[in-house]
């Protein structure tokens, strides 16, 4: 007898979409993934020019265990698909006052370095990271591993313990106030404030709960996947294909078909494709507005503030800078003013914090001999029709002035090639409303609870994964969203068999 599988459709081949497809395929569904782009990976993409290779999107790899879990579930050795290594320094920091710091991914060396370079007592750093780890263990894991939108998550001893452990101040205090109490030096406060930007939030508004993030990067480590971040996309794509997932790339989904408040499939390229289960890895706002044609629902999502966006310069640099590493941050002199501009004025700040990622530090082949591939990113406001054509040259001048000042040599003459990615391009390529890289921000104290859940409340069989829904943006949380979603979905019904039970 012909074996009939339950069909499932995933819209969007981003990291979360591919992880969702893998998990559903392993539950016995026959999964098809549609993506309007000709390549998988969503924001996690790649390009090369004149011997310079660039990861175009996310550049930080932490918590490899989330990926390990996916490969283990499929019974495959992850190292065969995605060899990776630990990076001893999570970031090189540069301050306007001339101070510099290597953020080691081990707690003791980091504390010693902060005392030596910044004059921040090592004891403060150790106490902070210990508390960060505790917050993560007691509250973070609960929060990141479950749907916050199902009451059964909130019963039982685990929750009572977590809520007891979660200092109320983690919710009522801003990350900045929390950090200001924990550290003596403004440099240490600024360094730990930066973790709010990991999900596009403002440290002066976002809750102190985000103080659990440094635990992930420092205590649990920072890693580098061989071949760069694009290797994550390639590994997930390969695993999905081996498991029998079908990919329809360059195929846009126009809408989700609903019958009697249940999904029945999708319309793609004018064709109906039927399935009782649909997972959207598209921005949740875009999903409601365009795919479900529910503008009121979409508008409700927009009541929350959008996360920040980014302006990225990809520069081929004809020189080597010994003082730089894989991840580098050049802080603005006035962080508070910078965030005022990003969120209140929706304008770039004239002295931006600059992040540089250089994968040629890990693999020389990523750039021509004696050269470096710089991925240079500044936080930008969400796209609200600002005149980027006019803004970009000014920002570029400011970035070059800052880097030349802090690195002690002019950078502009060293730029051999340049590509630019701005918020409107991000919006257009990834259907992320307003170019927000992380959907909504975490600027309200309870924002974590306002993020859209991983299922549709009013439409049966419709689920959501990716950075615009619970638990949030960034690769680890995107993978987590797929895991939470899969936990809510029943095993696929096998073909009806004729034997009597």
Could you explain how this protein is built, in words?
The structure is a single chain. This protein is α/β, with parallel strands linked by helices and 501 residues long. Helix content is 36%, strand content 20%. The strands form five sheets. Strands 8-7-16-17-18-15-19 form a seven-stranded mixed β-sheet. The radius of gyration is 23 Å and the shape is globular. The protein starts with 6 loop residues before the first strand and ends in a 13-residue tail after the last helix.
Widest beta sheet: strand line-up: 8-7-16-17-18-15-19
* Total strand segments: 20
Mean pLDDT: 89
- Radius of gyration, taken over Cα atoms and rounded to an integer in Å: 23 Å
The largest sheet is: 7 strands, mixed
Helix content: 25-40%
Rough outline? globular
The chain-level structural class is: alpha/beta
Number of helices: 18
| Uncertain stretches | 495-501
List the main descriptive attributes of the protein structure presented here.
501 residues, alpha/beta, seven-stranded mixed β-sheet, 20 strands
SSE layout and pairing:
Layout: E1 7-11, H1 15-26, E2 30-35, E3 46-49, E4 52-55, E5 61-62, H2 65-73, H3 78-81, E6 84-87, E7 89-94, E8 100-104, H4 107-118, H5 122-145, H6 157-165, H7 169-172, H8 175-182, H9 186-193, H10 213-219, E9 222-225, H11 230-242, E10 246-249, E11 253-259, E12 262-268, E13 271-274, E14 278-280, H12 284-291, H13 295-301, E15 309-317, E16 327-330, H14 335-345, E17 354-357, E18 372-380, H15 388-407, E19 415-421, H16 423-430, H17 447-450, E20 462-464, H18 475-488
Parallel strand pairs: 1-2, 1-14, 2-10, 7-16, 14-20
Antiparallel strand pairs: 3-4, 5-9, 6-9, 7-8, 11-12, 12-13, 15-18, 15-19, 16-17, 17-18
Helix pairs in contact: 1-11, 1-18, 4-5, 5-6, 5-10, 8-9, 12-13
């Amino acid at each position: 007898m012909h074996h009939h599988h339950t069909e499932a459709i995933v819209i969007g081949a981003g990291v979360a979409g591919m992880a969702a497809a893998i998990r559903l395929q392993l539950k016995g569904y026959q999964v098809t993934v549609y993506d309007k782009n000709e390549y998988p990976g969503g924001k996690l993409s790649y390009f090369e020019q004149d011997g310079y290779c660039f990861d175009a999107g996310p550049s930080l790899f932490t918590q490899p265990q989330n990926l390990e879990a996916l490969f283990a579930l499929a019974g495959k050795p992850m190292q065969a698909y995605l060899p990776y290594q630990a990076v001893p320094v999570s970031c090189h920091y540069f301050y306007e006052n001339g101070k510099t710091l290597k953020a080691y991914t081990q707690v003791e060396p980091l504390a010693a370095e902060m005392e030596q370079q910044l004059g921040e007592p090592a004891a403060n750093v150790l106490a902070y990271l210990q508390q960060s780890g505790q917050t993560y263990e007691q509250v973070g894991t609960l929060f990141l591993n479950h749907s916050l939108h199902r009451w059964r998550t909130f019963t039982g001893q685990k929750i009572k313990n977590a809520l007891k452990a979660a200092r109320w101040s983690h919710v009522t205090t801003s990350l900045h106030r929390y950090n200001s109490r924990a550290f003596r030096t403004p440099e240490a406060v600024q360094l730990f404030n930066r973790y709010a930007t990991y999900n596009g939030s403002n440290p002066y508004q976002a809750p102190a709960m985000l103080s659990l993030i440094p635990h992930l990067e420092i205590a649990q480590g920072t890693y580098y996947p061989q071949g760069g971040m694009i290797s994550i996309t390639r590994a997930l794509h390969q695993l999905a294909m081996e498991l029998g997932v079908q990919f329809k790339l360059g195929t846009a989904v126009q809408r989700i078909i609903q019958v009697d408040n249940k999904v029945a499939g999708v319309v793609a390229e004018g064709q109906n494709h039927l399935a009782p289960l649909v997972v959207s890895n598209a921005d949740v706002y875009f999903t409601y507005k365009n795919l479900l044609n529910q503008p009121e629902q979409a508008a409700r999502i927009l009541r929350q503030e959008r996360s920040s966006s980014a302006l990225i310069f990809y520069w081929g640099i004809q020189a080597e800078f010994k003082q730089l590493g894989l991840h580098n941050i050049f802080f603005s002199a006035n962080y508070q003013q910078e965030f005022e501009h990003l969120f209140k004025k929706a304008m770039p700040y004239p002295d931006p914090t600059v992040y540089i990622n250089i994968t040629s530090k890990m693999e020389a082949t990523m750039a021509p001999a004696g050269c470096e591939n710089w991925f240079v990113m500044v936080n930008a406001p969400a796209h609200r029709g600002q005149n980027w054509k006019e803004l970009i040259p000014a920002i570029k001048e400011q970035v070059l002035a800052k880097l030349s000042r802090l690195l002690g040599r002019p950078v502009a003459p060293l730029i051999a090639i340049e590509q630019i990615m701005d918020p409107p391009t991000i919006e257009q390529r990834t259907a992320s409303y307003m170019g927000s890289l992380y959907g909504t921000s975490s600027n309200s104290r309870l924002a974590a609870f306002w993020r859209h859940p991983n299922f549709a409340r009013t439409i049966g069989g419709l689920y959501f994964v990716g950075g615009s829904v619970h638990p949030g943006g960034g690769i680890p949380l995107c993978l987590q969203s797929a895991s939470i979603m899969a936990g809510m979905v029943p095993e696929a019904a096998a073909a009806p068999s004729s034997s009597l039970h």
